[in-house]
From TrEMBL:
GO cellular component terms, A-Z: cytosol
Species for this entry: Cajanus cajan
InterPro entries: ADH-like_C (IPR013149), ADH-like_N (IPR013154), ADH_Zn_CS (IPR002328), GroES-like_sf (IPR011032), NAD(P)-bd_dom_sf (IPR036291)
Enzyme class: oxidoreductase
Cofactor(s) annotated in UniProt: Zn(2+)
Protein name, as recorded: alcohol dehydrogenase
Lineage start: Eukaryota, Viridiplantae, Streptophyta, Embryophyta, Tracheophyta
Keyword Protease: no
GO biological process terms held by the UniProt record: formaldehyde catabolic process
GO MF annotations, alphabetized: alcohol dehydrogenase (NAD+) activity; S-(hydroxymethyl)glutathione dehydrogenase [NAD(P)+] activity; zinc ion binding
PROSITE patterns the UniProt entry points to: ADH_ZINC
ATP-binding keyword on record: no
Catalytic activity: a secondary alcohol + NAD(+) = a ketone + NADH + H(+); a primary alcohol + NAD(+) = an aldehyde + NADH + H(+)
Residues of the signal peptide: none
Length: 350
């Protein structure tokens, strides 16, 4: 049975970015009904990711609604959607999977040829936007745009979750937490007794989300039985914080008299079994690769998105440092800019 709003435009509140670095403005936006293979979601909670902040600060497409880590409830479904129904609880996914293209069927990649990273701020199906303010188009971000009470996504950009899962917390699994866990569990398949080295605990210039990326990998590696997890960073406080997530020892490059790759090889008797680069820097990728023992692989965290939701043992609460109402979304941006938060979860009006 269709809801009373399923074929209608919904007017709701959204945080709209009108220009680079400008405070978000709470606007009444019109959200169009879902088109073919799309679903419209009532957002319950969403969290701020470093990529949202970076895009907001850049000269990106404006006006725009940011946000891509979200949990919510399906309000209505478009033509052709069979895997979702109204009332389903879902997480959004910023790189979707069509499950039919060469990449999706290969079993080796989730960089879908159809629903890959959307950079133009438009829906995949018709290259149009589903948002507007007083008739003016408002563009999407990462095919999600969760800083809105309602949003429309392609059905391949959502994952159904158990109704027992707490929607007010699990938005973190939508991107950040799952990226690290998937890289360590599914892609690297960290084995028991391994030595793992992780580059990027929040070095100068990096965001809080980068240090979170490290923490996520460390926790996943620890849960998989890695015997030694080495964190590399030059910030003592962030190194100390990382230990709570499972890092067994830290190395400060500034205190080393030899290249950090040589240090890692020396203290690990030939190199790490697994090396995770969590910065996204080409020089650091090279260093991370050189820190591995012969014939081992490098796994750069920024190459992977959602790979798994196996995380019943994951302490999600550990990542949430702030819970904020939707009206305080600019406070979340300021906290991240100032490096004073891990993850801010933003709660929509119920």
């Amino acid at each position: 049975m269709s809801s009373s709003t399923s074929h209608q435009v919904i007017t709701c509140k959204a945080a709209v970015a009108w220009g680079a670095g400008e405070p978000l403005v709470m606007e009444e936006v019109q959200v169009s009904p879902p088109q073919q293979m799309e679903i419209r979601i009532k957002v319950v909670s969403t969290s701020l990711c470093r990529s949202d902040l970076s895009a907001w600060e850049s000269h990106a497409i404006f006006p725009r609604i940011f946000g891509h880590e979200a949990s919510g409830i399906v309000e209505s479904v478009g033509l052709g959607v069979t895997e979702f129904k109204e009332g389903d609880h879902v997480l959004t996914v910023f790189i979707g999977e069509c499950m039919a293209c060469r990449q999706c069927t290969s079993g080796k990649s989730n960089i879908c040829q159809v629903l890959g990273l959307e950079r133009r701020g438009l829906m995949h199906s018709d290259q149009k936007t589903r948002f507007s303010v007083k008739g003016k188009p408002v563009y999407h971000y990462c095919a999600v745009s969760s800083f809105s009470e309602y949003t429309v996504v392609h059905s391949g950009c959502a994952v159904k979750v158990s109704p027992l899962a707490p929607l007010e917390k699990i938005c973190l699994l939508s991107c950040g937490v799952a990226a690290g866990l998937g890289a360590a569990w599914n892609v690297a398949d960290v084995s028991k007794g391994s030595t793992v080295v992780i580059f990027g605990l929040g070095t100068v210039g990096l965001s809080i989300v980068s240090s979170l990326a490290l923490s996520r990998v460390a926790q996943a590696a620890r849960l998989r039985g890695a015997s030694r997890i080495i964190g590399v960073d030059n910030n003592p406080q962030k190194c100390e914080n990382a230990k709570a997530f499972g890092v067994t020892e830290v190395v400060d490059p500034n205190s080393c008299k030899e290249p950090i790759a040589q240090v890692i090889k020396r203290i690990t008797d030939g190199g790490a079994d697994f090396s995770f680069e969590c910065v996204g820097d080409t020089d650091m990728i090279t260093t991370a690769l050189q820190s591995c023992c012969d014939l081992q692989a490098l796994y750069s965290l920024y190459l992977y998105s959602i790979l798994s939701f196996l995380a019943l043992e994951i302490q999600i609460d550990d990542y949430i440092t702030h819970n904020l109402p939707f009206d305080d979304i600019n406070k979340a941006f300021n906290l991240m800019k100032e490096g004073k938060c891990l993850r801010c979860v933003i709660h929509m009006p119920r």
